[in-house]
Amino acid sequence: MFTLSEEGAVSRNSQQNRAAGKRKKQQRSGTRQHREFRPDFDAESLVFAGIEFAFGPSANAESLRRTLDQLAELDGSGSAAALLDRASQMLDASMDHAFLSGWQPAELVHAVRREFGARTARLTVAAIGSHASRTSAHKSAPEPWREQLDELNIGPDDAPARGRLSAWRAAEHAEPTDTWTAILSLLGFCSYLIPMTPLMATPPNWVTGAAASRPAKHGPEPKVLSRIRGLLAKAEATTFAEEAATLSAKAQDLMTRYAIDSAVIDAEAHTSLSDQVVTRRLLVDNPYPEAKVQLLNCVADSNSVRVLWHQRFGLVSMVGMPIDLDLCEMLFTSLLVQASHALSEAGGDRVKRSPSFRRSFLLAFATRIGERLAIAREQAGRDASSQYGKELVPIMTERTEAVGSVFEKQFPSIVTTSHSVTNAHGWQAGRVAAELADLTGGRERIAE
């Protein structure tokens, strides 16, 4: 089992070294020596040193502990306000850097939570809130950006950055060393973020008031998509595996035919295919993210979508035509629910609750689903060919090449990540569960 992921080892190390060198230039000589501190100089030097010790190639637990103790001492002195102001400014600058690098609010919080846990994730939300207030994001940002702010419970207020940081610290009820660990870790993490493909306008390109109104809808959702959603919802809700298989098969049949019909319409309109290819990103939660990404990869392969796993950050980039991406996300979400149900029904004894069993189960489920989806797509393709004739082959080939060209341009350096199976019982149980969710059964044509 294999998944495409970024080739990040060499490029990440060089990026980290460049970032570390830049910060070291900002430090004065002797910042890591124990000496008498001057609030106007040494507090900032301590913060820069602490960032190096907290995250990155120079991370050092013992040096970090000493730096945290010194920051905690300053935090309780008359320099506390100035120290907090400077930390707030640095956090706000880190948000600028992250968003200019193509990251979005929900993605950043997700990645930070995976790396450091809930406390630092809540700090990230506070920092994003300060940035949103300064940039008038609730008025100027694109609609998807504002939706993410809503999901993070970031309201449109004018609270100053230091006020949000102080509120976060008060709400944490933690020791100063713990809160400073979170601050330094977030600052270091943001400085080493890899650039991501911008999926919408970045903050400097927002125009005040331009996004104030919600975009107009382009008419009602096609009936076929509503029917697909309905079939998948029923498949998720039923407790009978055979019924779920039939419902999922009907949904896959409609999905494939709808995608093919859309491709034929686009070809007749002589539209530029490369201009239609878009990129989206999904958040992949723990546990067993590699198994979930494998399932997504299997679904994507059967729906003309290319997938790249940003493994370290728990993100997946999907490249394809909009309709194919919509269908891919719908089916993937439904199969995740069905896999969870199947895993629950597999049993609850000690062996079947083990992480190795569950991980192997999900990998096997993904692999078998991929095999079945490939067969289902081939059958639907043959049915469509009987309707459209030989002209269908070059149409679909051209779309595949357009998607591949955009994908390779965005991600020129990728590697194939392998996933090993460590529990034979889990693998076998996952194969059986996927067999019951067979997407080739019940393939009768559903008239529009």
TrEMBL record:
User: What InterPro entries does the database record attribute to this sequence?
Assistant: DUF2786, DUF7168
Q: Where is this region: Disordered?
A: 1-36
An example of a Pfam family matching this protein is DUF7168
Classify the source by domain of life.
Answer: Bacteria
Q: Which residues form the DUF7168 domain?
A: 291-398
List each copy of the DUF2786 domain by range. Answer: 223-261
- Specify the protein name: DUF2786 domain-containing protein
**Natural source organism:** Rhodococcus opacus (Nocardia opaca)
